[in-house]
Specification:
Elements (H helix, E strand, L loop, with lengths): L1 E5 L5 H7 L16 E2 H8 L8 E7 L5 E5 L7 E2 L2 H4 L5 E6 L3 E5 L8 E9 L9 E4 L11 E7 H5 L13 H24 L1
Parallel strand pairs: 1-10
Antiparallel strand pairs: 2-7, 3-6, 3-8, 4-5, 4-7, 6-9, 8-10
Length: 194
């Protein structure tokens, strides 16, 4: 059984519906930090049972290069979408605290990406981040495949706030530079007379 949901934030009109909510930035030093799978599930699948992890069944390969981190964003590993998106039941096993992100391809305007997964009730342990076969039906805890269409901000997290200094008045800068050159020329001229 498959459940499909369109999530707020996947289109500009949905963003207006949410009132422009922004999540806190990822911790400093993580760059494009990605959200944890627990955050993605909590914000978009609040009716799901609490899970120890997920098996990712499909990722939108047209959105960009997908990556995951099992160490709070310190290191990132590429996700082989060619393995999990082909026919058959091979998925990427990730614990709930793993981070997920997508790096859009240059020149593409991506607003959303499709993610399909099912929850698991046991931690993957040493198998966290491995590709493994999964049962199409008869899963633990009656887990169903959930397909979400998420905005990039919902996947990657909100970018950190960056302070951009206000541009200075170019005319004033030129006048100051000319004045300092004029004072310098006057000083050098007066020194030459002495």
């Amino acid at each position: 059984m498959t459940t499909t949901a369109l999530i707020h934030g996947s289109t500009p009109s949905a963003n207006a519906h949410r009132g422009g909510e922004r999540r806190p930035a990822a911790p400093a030093g993580t760059g494009l930090g990605g959200n944890t799978l627990a955050q993605i599930m909590e914000e978009n699948c609040s009716d799901m049972l609490a899970a120890a992890g997920v098996v990712i069944e499909h990722l939108d390969a047209q959105a960009g290069a997908w990556q995951f981190s099992a160490d709070q964003g310190q290191t990132w590993r590429a996700i082989r979408t060619d393995l999990i998106n082909r026919p058959g039941n091979l998925g990427l096993a990730l614990d709930r605290d793993a981070r997920l992100r997508v790096l859009p391809f240059g020149g593409h305007r991506v607003t959303g990406a499709r993610v399909a997964f099912h929850a698991v009730q046991r931690s993957h342990g040493a198998g966290n981040g491995s590709y493994r076969a999964y049962a199409p039906d008869d899963r633990d805890g009656d887990s169903r495949t959930v397909t979400l269409v998420l905005s990039l901000a919902a996947i990657n997290g909100a970018p950190p706030v960056v302070h951009v200094p206000r541009p200075r008045n170019k005319r004033a800068m030129v006048q100051r530079a000319a004045a300092s050159v004029g004072v310098g020329a006057a000083l050098s001229g007066s020194m030459a007379m002495a």
